[in-house]
Amino acid sequence: MENLVHNPDCECAEYRELSRRGFLGDARIFAAALASTPAWLPKVAFSRAPGGARDTLVIVNLRGGMDGLTGCVPFGDAELYVKRPTLAVPPPGQTNGALDLDGYFGLPPAAAPLLTPYQAGHLAVVHATGSTDPTRSHFDAMFYMETGTPNSGALLASTGWVGRHLVHTSPLGAGELRGIGVSPYLAMSLFGGPGTVPVSDLASYDFPGRPNTAADRRALLTSLYSQSVEILESSANSAMATVDILNGIDFQNYVPENGAVYPNSSFGYGLKSVAALVKADADLEVAHLDYYGWDHHNGEGPIDGAFAYMIGDLAATLEAFYLDTQAQMGRLIVVVMSEFGRRIEENGTAGTDHGHGNCMYVMGGHVAGGQVLTQWPGLASSGNGDLDITIDYRDILAEIVWNRLGNTRVDLVFPDFTPTFRGAVV
Predict the structure, then answer these.
(1) Which residues contact 210 (CB under 8 A, 6 or more apart)?
(2) What is the distance between the alpha carbons of residues 112 and 82, in angstroms, rounded to a whole number?
(3) Is the distance from CB of 296 to CB of 311 less than 8 angstroms?
(4) What is the DSSP string of 252-317?
(5) CA 295, CA 12: separation in Å to the nearest integer?
(6) What is the C-alpha to C-alpha distance for residues 147 and 143, in angstroms, rounded to an integer?
(7) 3 state SS of 320
(8) pTM here?
(9) CA distance 136 to 339
(10) What is the pLDDT of residue 212?
């Protein structure tokens, strides 16, 4: 698989350290998770779907702080070109100009593949959104966003918002594989969720050791775990079931449909594998993928540099997934988000520094697409150099949880928060 242009010199020291060890390798995460009693051990009252709607949710986390002012260009805001004289994507009609979406916002040229679902009414861009927590730390921002607890003041949460959703909904099927992270680590958003496992490569997830002794060793492990505490027994059973489910799918020879062509990149391969899993009718409820490398302090390159390569790979992969899963799109919803955005003003090294407000991409058969959903604050009105957040990211997620994931207990998924539904999904 091709490794897209990625220059670690563009990144801040904190992000380089996070990338090196993996976000979930931090001891604070594991200490918090192990110190608490898992929320799914007691009996819970399951929420029921309004109208029976249940989509499979695919989350793409752009780690590093994606530049939302380039991911969706507000070319109608003149202040953009004052604050970014060299980095701003030009307006439509100019050389390397933005691809017009609605007369005010546009996509950077490299993101042209996103026009396919957007023009079909199945992709919406949510702008001036994000986490309201003021932190500029990658680690803290990721933690607060994935636990759904911004402005909590301390790292107290031990379960993720997706994990809590899964706790408070009945499984679609047997519940053996409810959520999967295409990663060596389980994303914090999935923490606490029953039937959730991290798998780096869905095609090579197998029971280790010699095949001729696998059955005996598996029986021995099952017996040992059955005598252990419930959390360990449940995790072991989930891992065994996942092996069986994934081994029953021919990922290596999977052929996408409708002319879809996935990029030859790690992200393209990951989402292609998710498409195969979705089509296998394995009752998967959530898939999570990480896309690292968006911390562009230096040499951002929105037209022909690092950002352009990455947004091009992201857009082409999302288009391929959209085309490939046309038959399933009515029960799929994809959310692409990042822990925070970038400052409005470009810095002195052809990059952008940590900011707050950002954009999200939401794609699916029941998305109110073909629009940029925003309450645009204007770039000139910002008093701190950031894009102001006018839509809390939890508004969008809570609306998806309620309307598309069949869980009306959003108060348990996002505690101490009252969402405002924005019309992102129908």
Answers:
(1) none
(2) 25
(3) no
(4) TT---STT----SBHHHHHHHHHHHHHHTT----EEEEEEE----SS---TTTSHHHHHHHHHHHH
(5) 7
(6) 6
(7) helix
(8) 0.88
(9) 9
(10) 73
Quote the CA–CA distance of 283 and 155 in Å, as a whole number: 33
What is the β-pairing status of strands 358-364 and 123-130? antiparallel
pLDDT at 3: 45
Matching residue, tokens 């060793």: 217
> Distance between CA 75 and CA 8 in Å, rounded?
29
Q: For each of the domains in the chain, give its residue range(s) and CATH number, in order of start.
A: 8-204+250-413 (3.40.720)
Q: Running along the chain, 426 residues long, what does each successive block of 10 average in pLDDT?
A: 56 67 44 34 34 82 98 98 98 98 98 98 98 95 96 80 97 92 95 93 80 72 68 67 88 97 98 97 96 98 98 98 98 98 98 98 98 97 92 98 96 96 97
- Cα angle 23, 27, 33; round to 5: 90
CA distance 51 to 207: 40
- 3-class DSSP state of 410: helix
> How many CB atoms within 10 Å of residue 246?
24
Greatest Cα pair distance in the chain? 69
Q: Which two tokens stand for residue 191?
A: 């923490």
Spell 307-338 as b/e; 16+ CB within 10 A means b: bbbbbbbbbbbbbbbbbbbeebbebbbbbbbb
Report the C-alpha gap between 310 and 317 in whole angstroms: 11
